[in-house]
């Protein structure tokens, strides 16, 4: 699987819908809980996205906190994102300097990204790949010192 799963506004009724974006093919499908209609779309896929591959040992997620001055802080996770992390993230959104419209948190699990808050930008996978390369030595060091149980 190679999906980014997000909560979006339904194109039919503007209710809350779930969108599944296959970033290798560009196919977007979704369904709306409010009007119970399914929808689909096609997005342009760059060559970089077609070759993008995520390994099991990659980080479990990414957190980007956008600021009103245009800068952002990006953090990566090497374990499941816990509820207390989501609570901290929600608290950060209350800070006046934070731009909540340009902030998001997404978890990688079972071969897909699940967007927990916000909307990921169109260059989301580029942001993920760039930050993974930066964080990789730290994530590997943590994995070596504190290996996750693999059953």
How would you characterize the overall build of this protein?
The protein has 151 residues and is α+β, with helices and mostly antiparallel strands. Helix content is 24%, strand content 32%. The protein has 3 helices and 8 strands; from the N terminus they run E-E-E-E-H-E-E-H-E-E-H. The chain has an 8-stranded mixed β-sheet with strand order 4-3-2-1-8-7-5-6, sandwiched between helices. The chain is globular and about 50 Å long. The two termini are 21 Å apart. The model has no long low-confidence stretch (mean pLDDT 80).
In short, what is this structure?
This protein has 151 residues and is of the alpha+beta class. The protein has helices spanning 47-50, 83-92, 124-145, and strands spanning 3-9, 16-22, 27-32, 38-42, 61-66, 72-77, 104-109, 112-117.
Biggest sheet descriptor: 8 strands, mixed
Question: What is the number of strand segments?
Answer: 8
Number of helices: 3
Gyration radius, in Å: 16 Å
Quote the distance from N terminus to C terminus: 21 Å
Give the low-pLDDT segments.
none
The shape is globular
Q: In which range does the helix fraction lie?
A: 10-25%
Strand content: 25-35%
List the strand order in the largest sheet. Answer: 4-3-2-1-8-7-5-6
Q: Please tell me the overall pLDDT.
A: 80
Question: Helices and strands: which structural class?
Answer: alpha+beta
- The arrangement of helices and strands along the chain is EEEEHEEHEEH
């Amino acid at each position: 699987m190679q999906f980014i799963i997000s909560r979006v506004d339904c194109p039919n009724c503007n209710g809350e819908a779930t969108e599944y974006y296959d970033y290798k093919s560009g196919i977007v499908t979704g369904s709306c809980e409010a009007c119970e209609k399914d929808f689909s779309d096609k997005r342009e896929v760059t060559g970089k996205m077609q070759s993008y591959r995520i390994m099991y040992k990659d980080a479990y997620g990414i957190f980007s906190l956008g600021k009103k001055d245009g800068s952002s802080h990006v953090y990566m996770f090497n374990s499941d994102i816990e509820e207390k992390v989501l609570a901290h993230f929600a608290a950060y959104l209350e800070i006046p300097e934070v731009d909540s419209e340009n902030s998001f948190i997404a978890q990688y699990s079972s071969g897909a990204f699940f967007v927990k808050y916000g909307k990921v930008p169109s260059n989301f996978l580029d942001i993920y790949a760039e930050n993974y390369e930066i964080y990789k030595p730290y994530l590997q060091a943590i994995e070596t010192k504190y290996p996750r149980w693999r059953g």
